[in-house]
Amino acid sequence: MIRDSRPDDAPAIAAIWNPVIRDTTITFWPTERSVDEIAAIISHRQAANRAHLVALDDAGQVIGFASYDQFRGGLGYARSMEHTIQVARDFRGSGIGCALMGAIERHARARGHRVMIGAVTGTNAASIAFHARLGYSEWGRVPAAGWKFGEFHDLVLMGKDLFA
Question: Is 125 domain-assigned?
Answer without folding.
Answer: no
